[in-house]
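From the methods appendix. Each design record in this collection lists the tokenized structure first, followed by the designed amino acid sequence. Records were kept in a plain field format so they could be parsed without special tools. The example shown here is representative of the layout used throughout.

RECORD:
FOLD TOKENS (567 positions):
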């Protein structure tokens, strides 16, 4: 990623250069069409997708249909709109895929206008019946085909994946987070609008292979042309980019977990020659679910079950069909990202991608710019899982060890309404920010209640960063707004400057290298006792220097400590 040039300002009196660097970025009209709620998107809400896709492995093409059931919400049906005989409906489908036909469920064809670049299609929809019925439910059926963008380095550089397994058999899937689901099917490609009533995915594939999708298997039909039709159904709302087919020589086994909401059905799909290895490695899935339920509340999709599916890429959080490609090894492809040793005691992909069922799938950011809501909490789940298995200090060690991967190159929150992701620091820096907030609260019962409360309060919702931040502050009883601003929208690490009195009986401290008003409170421990200090940008003093254990402070709060000369 492009690095930012910035000026380190000691006393927080000027605007940081990170914000200036953000202002130099330019975006196209296509970025706005992709990343914002345009008028052609605003007047309708998706209720359900019913997707049918048939891939042609040899030619790397697909064909399919998508039924979109939607509700007219009236947001753009103002007086001006009522004077117009037609309304435009924005459908996203990325080139070189093409729409062949759009029709209503009554088989009425609609005209299509293809403009505004290669990836946005406009459909003419009459408003005559809608003016007096702003909550009318309607649907369209879109037929499409083409050669979808092929993934180069999935899941980071996404698209349709055409691979062969070790025995030379076809192995297909899709990875499209960020890039967008419109890379393989027509949809309203914006994170803020999930299908309220779920989705179905019907996959027509060679009958020698298995086709796996999200949710529960509804039916399997063997056709008379060498193909079979597999239909999967999701009852809960789901992100566009999470609806994914997996096609390969899969075998399957099932299990159950007794969780907080009852019996959770678990299903595992792997390539046939990996069955033995998978049956050993995937035993970890149960402890992951139990741990995350402990910290974050019930698994959010009991109705749709939990699945792990071996994928032709490293892994992705595809709702109720988590993609797994970690080669049945602990750590991240056998390495410990924290360098603490604890990361080799569990499978990174099982834990991290499953955690997204809570943050990312259950709670989804409305805008891609707020992807920290997904990734910061998922990264932090690694700390919580380590603590759940091995104790508090193990979790602290893991969290602290990840700091070496923080770059502080760009702000974590990106520009809104242009489909832009922020810095990769949303992972490690975001996880350390949450741990910092935890120790600032200094009440584990309250912290756990806050984490579980997020899942309950924003259950199956799309949210803004402000909603998450406000909830944490309100329920902590501490205003963390400036703390979130510091870590999410700034690339400076706040510095706690300090010096001792000549007799060493007092320590003086203040915040430097921070935004104006930065007010992170620190809880200091000594000999079984705790005190709370509230540094500001002005010097304060502490009489009992025994509490000022710089090594402990450094490990538990993501800040810099610097001893300076007395003023």
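DESIGN:
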């Amino acid at each position: 990623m492009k690095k930012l040039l910035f000026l380190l300002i000691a006393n927080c009196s000027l605007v940081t250069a990170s914000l200036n660097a953000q202002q130099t970025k330019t975006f196209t009209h296509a970025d706005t069409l992709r990343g914002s709620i345009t008028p052609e998107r605003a007047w309708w809400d998706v209720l359900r997708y019913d997707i049918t896709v048939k891939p042609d492995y040899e030619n790397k093409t697909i064909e399919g249909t998508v039924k979109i059931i939607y509700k007219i919400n009236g947001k753009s049906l103002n007086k001006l709109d009522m004077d117009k005989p037609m309304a435009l409906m924005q459908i996203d489908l990325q080139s070189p895929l093409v729409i062949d036909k759009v029709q209503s469920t009554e088989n009425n064809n609609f005209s299509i206008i293809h403009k505004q670049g290669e990836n946005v299609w406009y459909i003419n929809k009459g408003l005559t019946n809608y003016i007096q019925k702003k909550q009318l439910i309607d649907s369209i059926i879109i037929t499409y085909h083409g050669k979808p963008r092929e993934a180069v380095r999935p899941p980071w550089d996404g698209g349709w994946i055409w691979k062969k397994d070790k025995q030379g058999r076809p192995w297909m899937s899709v990875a499209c987070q960020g890039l967008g689901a419109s890379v393989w099917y027509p949809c309203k490609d914006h994170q803020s609008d999930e299908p309220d009533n779920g989705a179905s995915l019907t996959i027509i594939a060679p009958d020698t292979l298995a086709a796996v999708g999200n949710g529960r298997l509804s039916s399997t039909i063997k056709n008379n042309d060498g193909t079979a039709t597999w239909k999967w159904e999701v009852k809960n709302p789901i992100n566009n980019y999470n609806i994914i087919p997996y096609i390969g020589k899969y075998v399957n086994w099932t299990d159950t977990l007794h969780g907080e909401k009852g019996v959770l059905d678990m299903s595992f799909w792997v390539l046939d020659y990996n069955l033995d290895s998978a049956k050993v490695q995937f035993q970890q899935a149960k402890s992951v679910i139990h741990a995350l339920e402990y910290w974050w509340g019930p698994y959010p999709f009991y109705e749709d079950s939990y699945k792990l599916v071996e994928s032709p890429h490293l892994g992705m959080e595809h709702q109720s069909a988590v993609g797994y490609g970690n080669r049945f090894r602990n750590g991240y492809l056998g390495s410990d990202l924290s360098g603490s040793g604890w990361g080799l005691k569990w499978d990174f992909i099982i834990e991290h991608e499953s955690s997204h069922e809570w943050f990312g799938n259950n709670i989804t950011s409305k805008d891609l710019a707020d992807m920290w809501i997904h990734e910061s909490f998922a990264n932090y789940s690694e700390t919580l899982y380590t603590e759940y298995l091995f104790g508090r200090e193990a979790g602290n060690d893991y969290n602290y060890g990840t700091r070496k991967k923080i770059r502080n190159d760009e702000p974590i929150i990106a520009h809104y309404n242009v489909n832009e992701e922020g810095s990769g620091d949303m992972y490690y820096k975001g996880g350390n920010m949450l741990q910092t907030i935890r120790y600032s609260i200094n009440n584990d019962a309250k912290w756990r209640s806050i984490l579980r409360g997020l899942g309950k309060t924003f259950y199956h919702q799309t949210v803004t960063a402000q909603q998450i931040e406000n909830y944490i502050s309100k329920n902590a009883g501490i205003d963390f707004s400036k703390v979130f601003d510091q870590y999410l929208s700034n690339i400076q690490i706040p510095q706690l400057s300090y010096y001792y009195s000549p007799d060493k009986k007092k320590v003086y401290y203040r915040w430097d290298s921070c935004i104006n008003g930065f007010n992170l409170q620190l809880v200091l421990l000594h000999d079984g006792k705790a005190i709370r200090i509230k540094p500001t940008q002005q010097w304060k003093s502490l009489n009992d220097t025994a509490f000022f254990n710089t090594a402990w402070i450094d490990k538990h709060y993501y800040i810099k400590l610097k001893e300076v000369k007395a003023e």
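APPENDIX NOTE: The longest strand covers residues 44-56.
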